[in-house]
Amino acid sequence: MNSLKRLFSKISEWNYYIEGDKPASILSWVVDAIILSILTLCMSYLWFVYQSKIPWLSLIFALMATATVNIVYLQWRAGQFKRKKQAKLNKIAAAHRIKSLMQLTPTQFKWQLAKALLHSGKFEDIKVGKKFLKAKYDGRQALISFYHTPYSQQVPPFEIYKFLNVLKHSGYTTGFYFTLSSFSNTCNAILQDHDDIELHLIDGNNLIKIMEKAGIFNDSDAIKLHLRDEIEKSKIKKKQARKNLFTPAKAKTYIFYGFLFLAVSFLFRTYFIYYIILSVSFVLLGILVYIANPGTKETKSQDEVLND
């Protein structure tokens, strides 16, 4: 039993890695491999037996062809799994690190940024001021600013506009603006209107990459814990989704579809048996759901609770 639990846990973890915008699972990959194997074996055997007229030799060649196709398919899936897993790990790590950095005060974040830029090897002679950082970048003097506001999804465009004015009045032609959030299209449009200044906008994802290369983070254990939490959350969501398929409300829907297929069976007499089977299946499913979920207690609305 413990071995089965570990196996199911591992499969759930693999499914979490390959999940994306479209639903996917390791089981679907296995089913695809089985179907591909059957099709390859049948088609190659028929072709070889047609060419050679020797069944046993055709079977050997067909098995070899099936094995070759399976090896290619498994290698392709293994590479796909590796890429998806790494992308998910990078996403989890970035989210965890952004959340951790968001908890810093503006002053703490400023010093962490200065440390990352110094270790990146691209900035020299970094000076930390009250509001801005000054440094040499590619042999030129550069002014550096940042936007550090928790729970902010995007940098307000006016902040970019203000920093551009500071650069102009201070005589700088190169500037950097860092944030853990993101920049809107308006921010980029403002840059186009001020093409006399080279201002680089560095969003959260790119800032995390800079800090990673600079070796700022030492949080591998914390990220592993965060990853396990996310996998557990994914498992809970899937369990809840499965539960939602078998609620009394869904039972009514299943029974409705059962009677609907029953009516259709009389309209399309050619497929009568097919629709009858579907009708009986949905009605039985609805009845089973009702049996498994006896009448639930009605919950009071918010107004009823307040008026009690």
Secondary-structure blueprint:
Elements: H1 2-18, H2 26-52, H3 55-102, H4 106-120, E1 123-128, E2 133-137, E3 140-147, H5 157-170, E4 174-179, H6 185-192, E5 198-202, H7 204-213, H8 220-244, H9 248-267, H10 272-292, H11 302-307
Parallel strand pairs: 3-4, 4-5
Antiparallel strand pairs: 1-2, 2-3
Helix pairs in contact: 2-3, 3-8, 5-6, 9-10
- Whole-number count of domains: 3
User: Which residues sit in consecutive blocks of at least 5 with pLDDT less than 50?
Assistant: 296-306
CATH fold type of the largest domain: Trna Endonuclease, Chain: A, domain 1
Number of helices, counting only DSSP H or I runs of 4 residues or more: 11
User: Termini distance?
Assistant: 50 Å
Largest sheet entry: 5 strands, mixed
Number of strands: 5
What kind of assembly state do the chains in view correspond to? single chain
CATH architecture of the largest domain: 3-Layer(aba) Sandwich
- What's the rounded overall pLDDT mean? 84
How much helix, percentage-wise, in residues? Answer: 55-70%
CATH class of the largest domain: Alpha Beta
The chain-level structural class is: alpha/beta
What percentage of amino acids are in beta strands?
Answer: 5-15%
